[in-house]
Amino acid sequence: MSGRGNCYDNAVAESFFHTLKVEQLHCFRFISRNSAKRAVFEFIEMFYNRKRLHSYLNYSSPEQFEKSYYHERFGECA
Hints:
Elements: H1 11-25, H2 33-48, H3 62-74
């Protein structure tokens, strides 16, 4: 943890929520809270974690990065 008032404390979360708002929620008006929850879930689980390329992960998706990480460490057994 960093010291009190460090501006980088929430940088990762702020970046994620900015991406969520700009790429998914900006153009929509939801008719219910349930439909908004569903849209956020689908964005995170179907796109953000599986398809979206992340610069921090050397421009691979989290799913690709995780597979390669475990393949390098444990071989075919993982």
